[in-house]
Amino acid sequence: MKGVRAPRRLLPRGLRARLVVAFLLAAALSALAAASLTFRQARAAILDRARDDAVHDLRSQVGSLAPDLPAEPGRADLRALALQLDRAGGSRGWRAAAAYRGGEPVSATGTGPVVPERLRAVAGPSRTAVVQRFHHGGVPWLAVGLPVTRADRPGEPSGLVVYASFSLAGQERDVAALVAAARAGALPVVLLAVVPALFAARRVLRPVRRLRSAAEDMAAGALDTRIRVTGDDELADLGRTFNTMAATLQADAERLRTMEARARRFAADVSHELRTPLAAMTAVTGVLDEDAASGRLEPETAEALELVADETHKLVRMVEDLMEISRFDAGAAVLEPDDVDVGELVGKTLALRHWQGRVGADVPAGLRARLDPRRVDVVLANLIGNALRHGGPSVPVDVRARAEGGRLVVTVTDGGPGIPADVLPHVFDRFTKGDAARTRSEGSGLGLAIAAENARLHGGTLTAANAPGGGAVFTLTLPLDPA
């Protein structure tokens, strides 16, 4: 089955690349906006200047020619006026025409200039020049309609209207040249923006990199890490917050380490001090056990002695567990590996505790491993004893061993109710018991913690899980031949 490809990311993942891209986009948009604004203003200025110049020139020419016209100009007079205006157009090359009292415009050649109907309708009754831009044959044109006032009565329309139209192709070429220049100038601006973009990104990301490096150092255990803070911006505030957090964590960690060291020292000292009186108590209860067995003690006394002896043995085991865990804490636990037959080791563990009839063993013949037999016996005894206690007397317990990939894998399985979900993550923690409702138990709460420490001492692991069909499964994994 082919894997599904992850969708491609359109944006760069790194913050530095994103800052540079954002800076370049801002520069490109700014250059585009500036070019667009410049184009609009330049285009408007060019066209407005062409309009104003055309109106000024036409008014000047009409002002010099109109007084020579008769009061009631005829068609020939209008044609002569248009001809003189065409000649005066010069390089502008306009085409002129004249109309009197709403008549048709008369040109010098008989084919008048292109005059939009709207312009004619507006220019007739108007007293000022009227202009209109339009397209003719795919080319932009400008048309001017100029009403002529009477010479003897200034400001009063004479009924004569002069029209002139000319092409704006030259102006459009100038505008196109401006557009090309703006486009050519925008690209260097964007390319030059790369340098300040990289500089700005580096300046912005420098405190971020320092903060990341400091966080990595703290994650590695260097709680005395601090960063140098400069400035008063948001990143500087973040740096100060980080330093405050680091100082608080360091103080809390030192306080916790001190408390933990004192607790471990206390447990070690108490365990050491209890060994001597417990040895004496064990010896005395042993002598009294012999008297009880021979019938020299009253039944009530013998029963009380049995209770004291059982509690003394539990206390001895608890002290031994505390001493063992203290050795692990102090780093004084020593591994004494030997070449061991795993089947024989499992058999001895079961035989010493009289578990042969209650525990099934499945170990291949000839399976050998180099390990510390005493410590592995402690691990197996804790796992099997835990399974027998919590699984119940009628629940089978199975021990299986196999070699997988150069490692020894031993599983201890029971058919009991399994490990509660809230206990499972903490099953190897110290003083954790599977049944919180029981105030008294045979265990000290250290057995599984000691088993896990012995597994780690071998370079292996010990895990716990619930089987799909019910019951708990503990898996011990050790190297067959540790280095």
TrEMBL record:
Transmembrane segments: none annotated. It is found in: Cell membrane. Its EC number is 2.7.13.3. The keyword Acetylation does not apply. PROSITE patterns: HAMP, HIS_KIN. Residues 269-482 form the Histidine kinase domain. Its main location: membrane. It catalyses: ATP + protein L-histidine = ADP + protein N-phospho-L-histidine. Residues 202-254 form the HAMP domain. It is a multi-pass membrane protein. It comes from the Bacteria. InterPro entries: HAMP_dom, HATPase_C_sf, HATPase_dom, His_kinase_dom, HisK_dim/P_dom, HisK_dim/P_sf, Sig_transdc_His_kin-like_C, TCS_sensor_his_kinase. Keywords: ATP-binding, Cell membrane, Kinase, Membrane, Nucleotide-binding, Phosphoprotein, Signal, Transferase, Transmembrane, Transmembrane helix, Two-component regulatory system. GO terms for cellular component: plasma membrane. Residues 1-33 form the signal peptide. GO terms for molecular function: ATP binding; phosphorelay sensor kinase activity. PANTHER family: SENSOR HISTIDINE KINASE TRCS, SENSOR HISTIDINE KINASE YKOH. This is histidine kinase.
